Amino acid sequence: ITQGLTGALDALRGQTKLTEKNIADSLGQVRQALLEADVAYDVAKSFTDRVTENAIGRKVLNSINPGQQLVGVVYEELIHLMGPVDHSLHLAGKDEVTVIMLCGLQGSGKTTTCGKLSRILMNSGRRPMMVAADLQRPAAIEQLKTLGGQLDVPVHFEDPQGNSAVNVCRNGLKAAKAAGNIDTLILDTAGRLHIDDDLMKELEQIDNRLHPKQVLFVCDAMTGQDAVNSAKAFNEALELDGVILTKLDGDARGGAALSVKHVTGVPIKYVGVGEQLDKLQEFHPDRMAERILGMGDMRSLVEEAQAKFDQEEMEAAEEKMREGKFTLDTFLSTMKQMKKLGPMGEVMKMIPGMGGAVEAMGDMNPDDDMKQIEGIIQSMTPHERSNPDVIDISRRRRIAKGSGVDPADVNKLLKDFGGMQGMMSKMAGMSIRERMRAVKE
Ligand code: GDP
Ligand code: MG
């Protein structure tokens, strides 16, 4: 886990002016943070160059809080470059069939995204049909048919033998028009592991014959640095209209968003945040900027949490954090709440300050060790849970025995908790700006 922006700010600690020199030092670290977030090298470099210009321009205006000022510039610039926000798929009226074409490398998530898009379209009152135009992999047609079955969306498919993708797409459009009630046609095209001419020719043919209203590039956020090359190639061949960035539920720090936007210039429309069909969300540059900078994505968490969290319990926990009373009980109930959201690591990264907390937990795997943590904490008395300081050697031994672990495990938990406690009470309830300030001070 990267230190991200914290390191960059450390360099500015105690400085009173933004000078060319200290900007350069700090932006070197910002650039490093960007590279660690998988932003392509050239993109990171031109980004920091731009920020330098902007920051120096502002130094006369405001020479107090240089770290805050610089982070402000970096943050705004990231948002600026990943925007503007345009979620629209520019659909025509329902009396005609709007064609949307998805393209991208193999495994990037095209077929899954076809299903997810269909679902979103249906929820907004449209009637989509999907076309199985990936004739390369026999399983691809079956995969799309299965999705169609789950969603109750018609799928046009044909025998791939001796057939061509452009032919399947053309027939798909005919079928959609003939059906009478279809207003959107989504083409699921083939991908390759690497960009190759045959694939590009096939896609160009479809583009030329069907004239899709939207050509969307589906890009796996985990591919990081390579995203630039594939985005460039697809954009040159097809003139993309938008990007869908997938697999942002994984470890990806989101740098691909900046890179892909930089090379294609087209808006990022949606992000995929899971394998399930409801895991497609509108793209928000501010959230992505926070993620790239390692600041945690509070709003996404709050939104997702609303559905699943026990609101009262969480509010009580937050209140305690705010009062600086983050006890082992709070720790345990917070962990339990988070667990409802899915794999712990992913969730924890989204909470401000928790990126650091995950680090403070060292090599402890939050998922695997959850049971053990729970066991240890439950072997403590209520008094011990609220006042971990009283846990001396003999108490440690008793707790270890009670929970069937080694006294060293109890030690480790207390140490990890101590690190997290400091961070949590400092960060809880703060706005992003306040958090930035807190990191600096
Ligand atoms: P295609 O080859 O481009 O059609 O890719 P698929 O749609 O078949 O997806 C490849 C794999 O990525 C499948 O296992 C999907 O479930 C998975 N996948 C697609 N989108 C996402 C996403 O947003 N998050 C996660 N975790 N997995 C995804
Ligand atoms: Mg596919």
TrEMBL record:
Keywords: Coiled coil, Cytoplasm, GTP-binding, Hydrolase, Nucleotide-binding, Ribonucleoprotein, RNA-binding, Signal recognition particle
Transmembrane segments: none
A cellular component term, taken from the record's GO annotations: signal recognition particle
Residues annotated for GTP binding in this entry: 104-111, 188-192, 246-249
Enzyme Commission designation: 3.6.5.4
Subunit relationships: Part of the signal recognition particle protein translocation system, which is composed of SRP and FtsY.
Protein name: Signal recognition particle protein
Species assigned in the record: Symmachiella dynata
